[in-house]
Amino acid sequence: HYRSAIEINPQIGDAHLGLADVLVRTYDIQNAKAPAERAAGMMPDNAQAQYLVGRVYELSQQFDQALEAYG
Question: What is the DSSP string of the chain?
Answer without folding.
Answer: -HHHHHHH-TT-HHHHHHHHHHHHHTT-HHHHHHHHHHHHHH-TT-HHHHHHHHHHHHHTT-HHHHHHHH-
